[in-house]
């Protein structure tokens, strides 16, 4: 039987089946569609303007197969050169202080810094908050530690970005992440987050949060992993040693089942989330400023200061 040809170029042998569309493609055409889709997303949503200084949230990859931030750094650098976006790119890594996990992935980020010739800034929970995740887990146990880590990371990225003097942050959140978050917010009934979670770019504010965007919002996780694999990019893949977020795990497993039956399910859920309109009389949190640190807050204290207060009092809630 003759080998199947790539459905785009019709000359090279098809080497893979594209997860998003199930098309059979050769490697070169896969790279082209992958990169072009990200470029089109950036253009369509006008994520950047010439002269922007952009920090790439670089975790080095985590989770069994995650390569998102490594691929993001590689592809943004490539597109910035290919299409002359005029961006200044930086890697920004947050060291949560998880021995045997983040310290290893930081080594990957340092190699990425050298491979892509991008400046790297590392800021740690220890220096920002006086606590490492190791010490937090030793104090509060493994039950709610993902909450602490998530809240601290959000603010840490803004603080690290301020030190770098950038005006925009990008993260490697992909289509699967966004669809999962839509499902989770529905399951939790969190209307405010449901409305915000599909936004490709969240605007900055006066309280120190910078504009943040997700250039991979429409990119499938499986394709990111494939791209990293075929391009032999250097990323780290080990599960976080502290308990994974169980509730997200269910949403994730459900999404994977749906994707197996119908690949468009991921995009369908994102589109459904985008189209939802929240009734005008639904109460939304009002954004103000934290009395203690000045960061955005919907109460007197921002979430990070509230969590820190509990930790420092030795009475974690
Ligand atoms: N420690 C960190 N330092 C800097 N950025 C981070 C860090 N952790 C996560 N991010 C950013 O947030 C995005 C989503 O993080 P999440 O934890 O969902 O995925 P991840 O599995 O860490 O992703 P990746 O595959 O990029 O490591 C990452 O792609 C990255 O841009």
UniProtKB/TrEMBL annotation:
Keywords, ordered alphabetically: ATP-binding, Cytoplasm, Nucleotide-binding, RNA-binding, Transferase, tRNA processing, tRNA-binding
Hydrolase keyword on record: no
Name this polypeptide is given: Cytoplasmic tRNA 2-thiolation protein 1
HAMAP family: CTU1
Function: Plays a central role in 2-thiolation of mcm(5)S(2)U at tRNA wobble positions of tRNA(Lys), tRNA(Glu) and tRNA(Gln). Directly binds tRNAs and probably acts by catalyzing adenylation of tRNAs, an intermediate required for 2-thiolation. It is unclear whether it acts as a sulfurtransferase that transfers sulfur from thiocarboxylated URM1 onto the uridine of tRNAs at wobble position. Prior mcm(5) tRNA modification by the elongator complex is required for 2-thiolation. May also be involved in protein urmylation.
Signal peptide location: none
Location in the cell: Cytoplasm
Pfam families per record: ATP_bind_3, zn-ribbon_14
Record InterPro entries: CTU1-like_ATP-bd, CTU1_C, Ncs6/Tuc1/Ctu1, Rossmann-like_a/b/a_fold, TilS/TtcA_N, tRNA_thiolation_TtcA_Ctu1
UniProt keyword Nucleotide-binding present: yes
Residue ranges of the TM segments: none
All residue ranges annotated as the Cytoplasmic tRNA 2-thiolation protein 1 C-terminal domain in the record: 288-317
Superkingdom classification of source: Eukaryota
